[in-house]
Amino acid sequence: MTEPLTSTFSSRPDGAFVTETLEVRWFVLGTLSPSAFPWAHGAGLTQAAPRTDRYVVLPGVDGVGIKLREGRVEVKARSGSLGSRALGTMSGEVERWVKWSQPVGSGVSWDQGPGVRIVDVDKTRWSLWRDGALIELTALKADGQFWWTAAVEIAGSVADPSRLANLCEPFESLEQARGALTLDASRGYASWLERLTRTA
After folding, report:
1. CA nearest neighbour of 131 among 49, 8, 26
2. What is the C-alpha to C-alpha distance for residues 56 and 168, in angstroms, rounded to an integer?
3. In whole angstroms, how far apart are CA 195 and each of 4, 58, 172, 177?
């Protein structure tokens, strides 16, 4: 169930809006274990319909992400870093992000300039809204590789980072996450895709 976001973004009559979040995210190579599915249900996460997002990956750029998602163009930029934090048995990079989202027509196309990659990412996502924060687990396929990502996003420009440890606590009981949600695995989508395409 999606919570209203009226306090977390500014909107315009043309349907564009801006969202600010505080986030920690991890990417792990491999498929999700079957044990993740009953875990998600037990933790209260709801599965969304599978979807494919199309990303523009800029070479050498890990702080700006551009994607086409369900009829909208989204540009997401890192606006600040709070550094690494211990979050229970996990550790991760805590970052602030700003996202601009704009509806587009069905005929939108990408101009693929020198070094730019277009990558389709298939996603199956489980999520839960809790006290203005999104707890997320997503199975991914990109460039023929299977990955999964876990994340917590707190909405708002002045979100309190001290809340992250408590919000990340559900991942403590996910068997596949034990020992996997480390500082080395912690990054945003832009950084993950930039690394993925650099080694492809």
Report:
1. 8
2. 29
3. 34, 11, 27, 21
Which of 76, 69, 73 is CA-nearest to residue 151? 76
Q: Supply the pLDDT for residue 192.
A: 97
Q: Which helix (H) or strand (E) covers residue 150, if one does?
A: strand 145-155
Mean pLDDT of 124-138: 95
Per-residue confidence (pLDDT) for residue 131, from 0 to 100: 87
Q: Which amino acid is at 9?
A: F
Per-residue pLDDT for 39 more than 90? yes
194 pLDDT more than 50: yes
Place of tokens 């550790």: 91
What does the pLDDT average to over 63-72?
A: 90
β-partners of residue 121 are 53, 142
Residue 41: pLDDT above 70? yes
pTM of the model: 0.89
Contact 161, 85 (CB under 8 A): yes
Q: What is the mean pLDDT of the chain?
A: 88
Let me know the angle formed at the C-alpha of 163 by 155 and 3, rounded to the nearest 5 degrees: 35
Written as one string, the DSSP assignment of 36-101 is: HHHHHHHTT-EEPPPEEEEEEE-TT--SEEEEEETTEEEEEEEEEEEEEEEETTEEEEEEEEEEEE
Cβ contacts of residue 184 below 8 Å, gap of 6+?
Answer: none
Cβ atoms of 22 and 154 closer than 8 Å: yes
